[in-house]
Design goal:
Length: 403
């Protein structure tokens, strides 16, 4: 049980060090903006198809077929490259790219293509209750990236490109190790040859995952409209929340909720543990910000709630995959779409800023967690999540209407 948390802590910890070195060496500029935006887009198909469709169908009674697994395995890398290309075009149309940043585009595309098969095998292993590979999935790449950023590169473009090449090498080495160890082979062999029963489930999971990820991309794309460096600031906050959530969830939950789990009780206990542990941390950070760093109080409070809500939503989703029918995915589709639409509408306001986008990201997680908790009949935590939704809505409106 300890191997997963240790690997996850090491992986996410080196990721935070990588971010700190990247910003320290280069500052927040067009190079870092391009890196964060394209990296997120390159990972989007992997999160949508492998994590959002294949993983829940490995847990659900509507089990994915072997042919379905094969299709996702071989199409995801190509779609990842396509998404990086589309993101590069969007940056160019908004004057945020230029020829000088093309090496970052090329390295981002190559890394996204290698990431996909690494995640494919890690997801297979995670579904059978082994969280170690997913917990440490970024460790080799992050370690090499940190070592690369220690070199004093002459300009930001070279620094970011070298870091991306290090990520590519690290992911390639991890993939070779996974292949040699046969990671995921047991789960793959256990998938049924016929998947007639899984078609409706696949449709629900694909719709849920696709709408959710597209909504997040639309929210992030509005950050391109802000002055330079804002996309980097937003991405750093996203990485920090994601790292903390992954450390707590990916390292433990697969051992509690997997293909053989019969009762949701262990998931309920873990959710209570998360709120008891994270609540005081978020509250203490908010009090410290109001006391000593008043200018940063709003984003600190929002990010604190975001961390709690993101972790809650992640656990609730995995419980939903195992214990509710695929049609339960419809609960989150409309709400996530609504947040994206309101975020896009808010971008037309003269007061549109990073705080609005932080509230939008946090609202996606808060709404998702609230709806799923009520569906799972975990009503007390669902009520707490509803309070978070109301607070975030107030913070969002307050940022847009402030003088």
């Amino acid at each position: 049980m300890l191997r997963g948390p240790i690997l996850s802590l090491a992986s996410q910890g080196t990721g935070v060090v990588q971010l700190a070195l990247l910003i320290w060496r280069n500052g927040a500029n067009s190079s870092t903006d391009a890196y964060f935006y394209l990296w997120n887009l390159g990972l989007l198909p992997t999160l949508t198809l492998l994590v959002g469709v294949m993983y829940p169908m490995l847990l659900s009674e509507h089990r994915i077929s072997r042919r379905g697994v094969s299709i996702l395995r071989w199409t995801t890398p190509g779609i990842s490259i396509l998404f990086v290309g589309v993101g590069a075009v969007w940056l160019e149309l908004n004057g945020k790219l230029g020829i000088a940043l093309l090496p970052i585009v090329a390295a981002s595309a190559a890394n996204s293509a290698i990431q996909a098969p690494v995640w494919f095998r890690a997801v297979l292993s995670e579904a059978e209750g082994d969280p170690r590979w997913m917990s440490g999935i970024a460790l080799p790449a992050n370690v090499l990236a940190v070592l690369t950023l220690l070199v004093p590169w002459s300009d930001p473009v070279k620094s970011v490109t070298a870091m991306l090449v290090a990520l590519l090498v690290g992911n390639s080495c991890l993939l070779l190790l996974m292949v040699s160890r046969g990671v995921g082979i047991t789960t793959l062999a256990g998938t049924p040859r016929s998947g007639v029963r899984s078609r409706s489930g696949a449709g629900w999971f694909l719709a849920r995952s696709g709408i959710g990820q597209i909504a997040v991309v639309l929210i992030q794309s509005t950050a391109v409209l802000l002055p330079a460096s804002n996309l980097t600031i937003l991405s750093v906050a996203t990485k920090i929340v994601g790292a903390a959530s992954a450390t707590l969830v990916n390292a433990v939950v697969p051992a509690l909720i997997h293909q053989s789990t019969e009762s949701p009780e262990s998931g309920r206990k873990f959710l209570r543990f998360l709120w008891i542990g994270l609540g005081p941390i978020a509250f203490g950070s908010s009090v410290a910000a109001f006391t000593w760093f008043r200018d940063f109080a709003a984003p600190v409070v929002i990010v604190g709630l975001w961390l709690i809500c993101a972790t809650t939503a992640a656990v609730a989703q995995r419980m939903t995959f195992r214990f509710l029918p695929p049609s339960a995915s419809r609960l989150t589709m409309a709400s996530v779409s609504l947040v994206a639409v309101v975020a896009i509408a808010s971008s037309r306001s003269s007061n549109f800023d990073v705080n609005v986008l932080l509230a939008a990201y946090a609202s996606v997680e808060a709404l998702t967690g609230m709806l799923l908790l009520f569906a799972l009949r975990i009503r007390l935590l669902g009520f707490y999540s509803m309070l978070c939704v109301l607070f975030l809505a107030g913070a969002w409106a307050g940022s847009l209407t402030s003088p």
